[in-house]
Amino acid sequence: MQHLYEIDVRVPMRDGVALAANVWHPAQGQAPTLLVRMPYGKDVLALGHGSMPDLGALLEAGYALVVQDCRGTHRSEGEFVPHMADRADGEDTVVWIADQPWSDGTVGMFGASYLGMVQWETAVTGAPALKAIAPALTSIDNYESPWFSAGGAMSLSLVTMWNALMYMADAQRSLAAGKGSVSQLQQLAQAALYPEPLNDVLPTGEVPVLAEYGKWWDDWMAHPSHDGYWDAMELTPELKNVTVPALNIGGWYDLYIGQTVRTYTTARRQAGSAQAREGQRLIIGPWDHNPSPTGVYRDRSFGPLASAQMAGLGALQLKFFDRWLRGDTTALDDVAPVKIFVMGIDQWRDEQEWPLPDTRWTDFHLTSTGHANTADGDGVLTTEPPTTAGHETYLYDPRRPVPSAGGASMPTTPGFCGPVDQRTVAGREDVLCFAGPVLEEAVEVTGPVSLTLFVSSSAVDTDFTAKLVDVFPDGKAINLCDGILRTRYRGGLATEELMEPGTVYEITVDMTATSNVFLPGHRIRVDVSSSNFPRYDRNTNTGGVIARESEEQMIPAVNHIHHGPNHPSRLVLPVIDRPDREDQQ
After folding, report:
1. Closest CA relative to residue 168, chosen from 123, 138, 209
2. What CA–CA distance (Å, rounded) separates 215 from 163?
3. CB 215 within 8 A of CB 304
């Protein structure tokens, strides 16, 4: 099919604002259309993203393509405020596409990260022409991911980096329009290129280059709880309006992994049509948020099958759109509803459900003789219920936080994101390590992971972090998944409740999810502490407004982890027992 290419087509919105789009459409006849909406400049999409299909392949397959700048970005009119206009603008764009003479009236959407958020924001409007979406590495609750977390801590390194990037682009637009200042643009460009120093500034909410630019920064800093400000952006209650199938794409080390699996399971239950509920698909690889998802990292390579390319991710998306935009009822016959990469054995595996129906939820109890500090301590993980009481103690000083070492983090720089050897951070006295015995047989852990702790503190508020670790026979310790809980949010993210110093509280840390086979000779370990900086902001331990507190206002906290019959602190793992698994053959 021959396509015509039009640049900067003006697409009118209901309020009169025109958004710019690049359009590839058939020279003759009509075609189904795939839409991408993005705030980063539509012209860069040609550079590609490993989680998205190749644009040339889509055109060759006979699709029309519309790539649009979000409101207030690059060549589109209006003002950009994250998420605020994307529902209406997405719906208006779908209606516009369906009305074009080259359109056959069907529209699909794809894209990763913010490009995935706008898909869900469009889908909840119920736009009739929208038939399918393929959101990758994304979220429907913008508080829980990406800007804050499921435990209430702010995703500091992401918030500073992303806002510096978006403010820089906005300042460029202003300067081109004869407004703004060159010096301010230079400062923002420096911050976008080297965002790490921004994380060290205190108070966090007063980072000069970002706070001075204003816009939504002040709103985010003023709403650390999941209050009405964030509720207005959350889409979970509106999934009942979604009537289209979704191909949900995630990565075990992506910052959205918790939201990816939660969106899939919630949509399977609550989407607004049988077709949408039954048409949900899920694929998760050993990837982070990097545009080139290879599964190869400095401290751990997941083998030649790990990349998105080897997984056939682009071809899978094409099949998905052929099924729902073209009506090819056989297009997905050879595709399982769930496809996951199982780390440890480093293999892809098809599943019918998530969580897996044969999951055996297993408690691994934390115990010790009181010296679990560091990986060389006496912390133990055991499936046997504890018979004696005890507790662990460590000092959390926000002036000396535990440095981030891998995980589902942004930016995706080596050593900061993905699987990283934990031996350095596990040597700190403020990190408690609880390890199981050397395994004689393989243990598969696939599904959601959580840590229930009985804690007390000298402070009225503090954080608790948890990290699941695969310890190799040579001592290498690779992180798999993790989480954090700000204790003021132990009863829910919308309401703050401070602690009474010395009182024991039961809390649960959501550690998202993973899929890993702990091989014979390995050990299962969980690491517990109170900071993961700068991935998350530091708790000042005062109970005050953290974003507005200075270093002088920070106070240390003496934190305790209690264990025993009356305080059964435990790691809850989704164990999968399958005698036909490859590692047991």
Report:
1. 209
2. 10
3. no
- What is the CB neighbour count within 10 angstroms for residue 519? 17
- Given 69, 170, 254, 421, which residue is catalytic? 254
> How much is the pLDDT for 49?
76
H helices then E strands: how many in the chain?
11, 21
Torsion of CA 206, 207, 210, 211, to 10 degrees: 10
With contact defined as beta carbons under 8 Å apart, do 534 and 154 qualify? Answer: no
The yes-or-no verdict on residue 141 having pLDDT over 60 is: yes
Is this model's pTM higher than 0.70 or not?
Answer: yes
Q: What is the pLDDT of residue 583?
A: 60
Could you tell me the two tokens for 360?
A: 């055996």
Spacing of C-alpha 230 from chain mean position = 17
Active-site residue (options: 113, 139, 149, 530): 113
Whether residue 289 lies in the annotated active site: yes
Per the rule left: phi > 0, alpha: psi between -120 and 50, beta: everything else, 331 is alpha
User: Which pLDDT does position 566 carry in this prediction?
Assistant: 97
Q: How far separated are the first and last CA of the chain, in Å rounded?
A: 49
155 in catalytic set: no
Give the pLDDT band of residue 48 (cuts 50, 70, 90). low
| DSSP assignment letter at 143 | I
% the chain with pLDDT above 70: 99
Residue 65: beta bridge partners? 24, 34
Is 391 considered catalytic here? no
How far apart (Å, rounded) are the C-alpha atoms in residues 451 and 314?
A: 36
Virtual torsion, Cα 535, 348, 440, 297, nearest 10 deg: -40
For residue 323, what is the DSSP state? H
Neighbours of 278 (CB within 10 A): 11
273: tokens are 């049509």
Cis-peptide, bond into residue 135, ω within 30° of zero: no
73 neighbors 41 (Cβ within 8 angstroms): yes
Of 74, 289, 562, 567, which is the active-site residue? 289
Q: Dihedral of the CA atoms 149, 152, 155, 160 (nearest 10)?
A: 130
pLDDT tens column, 259-285: 999 999 999 999 999 999 999 999 999
| Letter string b/e over residues 181-198, b meaning 16 or more CB atoms within 10 A of that residue's CB | eeebbebbbebbeebeeb
The Cα–Cα gap between 573 and 260 comes to 19
